[in-house]
Specification:
Radius of gyration: 21 Å
CATH superfamily of the largest domain: Aldolase class I
Order of helices and strands: EEEHEHEHEHHEHEHEHEHHHHHEEH
Number of domains: 2
Helix content: 40-55%
Oligomer: single chain
Structural class: alpha/beta
Strand order of the largest sheet: 3-4-5-6-7-8-9-10
CATH topology of the largest domain: TIM Barrel
Shape: globular
Number of helices: 14
CATH class of the largest domain: Alpha Beta
Length: about 400
């Protein structure tokens, strides 16, 4: 049985035995009781200058291969969204290329795909409401021209420009009127992006929910669903009771998705989750069990992934992408633990240690021996002596104290 060394916050090294048996995803095409998308990350080219503020330079082979992995598990792919580092390193040129390439790959395998449409082509400048509409439409037209379905993402520019709930209703109405097929809206909370605090015109979630409901009802023919990323199960449950039957509520709640997807007998949430990119075979197998009417098996499989997800998405939540990329690297889906903009430095070794343990417990390590070797190599790079049970940094601190 393979063992790995893990590191706690005091610099102490301890042993963990990998006991999780990898899960085999169901055969693609198997019926599932929920529509489920995994939000996919991007992989940088190893030799590129992927440093803060540099244009994203991607390893397209690895980036697209990871999407094929998700499709092979029977999941849909949500692309060019916050998991792919929108507003955290992925620039406008890379976004358009990613949408174009992902749409072509999805078509080649008949894979489900939705892509993010935002206003971030504009940069950080402040713009008017009419300019927000224009920016949205620019990206909407590009996505639709490439054959991709759309997630209309929350806009930082709209959050800055809007002065009332009516401003949100006006902008969304104008954009949705131009969509050639129904889109998924996105309600992204401040835990993921602090610049979106008070989105839809109020910091009171009940008041904001009323605005969301009006936008959907006024444009129901143009809205297929809404992704709710608030980490607030109560609000999500309330919203899915209120929206028209034709509109799906996709949970983006990476803390509480097990119960939300299972539902209450009358209503349930579908899934559009970054968490599913960390455990695609397990998630797919769990959904298949739910489709077979075996909720016990569904929970046995999926609940351990939720514990993993809660650590991946721990505060500061916006750095969850680091965990997604880290687990993809452990599982062999990218050649190095690196991210656009150097974001792989966004989490500590003790945090990554917890991810190793929780991924094992969730059966999300697809190749345990490979994961163990890669993790051990990373510890060695950081000066952790896995043989002696203490990190080099801890030893250096102790020696400094003795000589003082």
């Amino acid at each position: 049985m393979t063992s790995v060394a893990l590191l706690n916050g005091d610099g102490e090294v301890y042993e963990h035995r990998l006991t999780g048996v990898p899960v085999t995803a169901p055969t693609r095409g198997a019926s599932a009781p929920r529509v489920a998308y995994a939000a996919a990350h991007v992989v940088p080219r190893i030799a590129a200058e992927n440093v803060p503020d540099a244009p994203a330079d991607l390893d397209w082979d690895a980036t697209l291969a990871f999407r094929h992995h998700l499709w092979s598990c029977g999941l849909g792919v949500a692309d060019a969204m916050d998991t792919a580092q929108r507003n955290m390193g992925l620039d406008a040129t890379a976004i358009r290329e990613l949408i174009k390439r992902s749409a072509a790959e999805a078509k080649s395998v008949d894979g489900r795909l939705v892509v993010g449409v935002n206003t971030d082509d504009v940069g950080d400048e402040t713009i008017s409401l009419d300019e927000v509409v224009t920016a949205y439409l620019h990206q909407l037209e590009f996505a639709e021209d490439n054959g991709a379905d759309v997630v209309l993402m929350a806009s930082r520019h709209l959050a800055r420009a809007a002065r009332s709930p009516q401003d949100y209703e006006r902008v969304y109405g104008a954009v949705l009127a131009r969509a050639t097929r129904p889109v998924i809206l996105h309600w992204l909370g401040p835990a993921f992006d602090s610049q979106l605090d008070g989105y839809f015109g109020s910091t009171d979630v009940d008041e904001a929910r009323a605005v969301v409901r009006r936008i959907i009802e006024d444009n129901v023919g143009s809205v297929s669903g809404i992704k709710v990323s608030l980490l607030d199960a109560v609000t999500e449950i309330a919203l899915r009771r209120e929206v028209p039957e034709s509109v799906r509520v996709f949970t983006g709640d990476d803390f509480n998705y097990v119960d939300l997807i299972a539902g209450d007998g009358r209503h349930h949430s579908d899934a559009l989750l970054g968490a599913f990119a960390t455990c695609a075979p397990v998630a797919a197998a769990a959904l298949a069990a739910l489709g077979d009417g075996d909720e016990t098996r569904y929970r046995q499989l999926l609940e351990p992934t939720q514990a993993l997800s809660r650590e991946v998405f721990a505060a500061p939540t916006s750095f969850y992408k680091t965990g997604v990329a880290f687990l993809a690297w452990l599982n062999g889906y990218q050649p190095a633990f690196s991210m656009v903009g150097g974001l792989h430095s966004g989490r500590s070794l003790p945090h990554l240690s917890r991810l190793v343990r929780l991924a094992d417990e969730a059966r999300a390590l697809e190749h345990p021996e490979l994961a163990a070797q890669r993790w051990t190599d990373l510890l060695h790079v950081h000066g952790v002596d896995t043989a002696s049970g203490a990190s080099e940094a801890t030893g250096n601190q102790s020696r400094a104290k003795r000589s003082a």
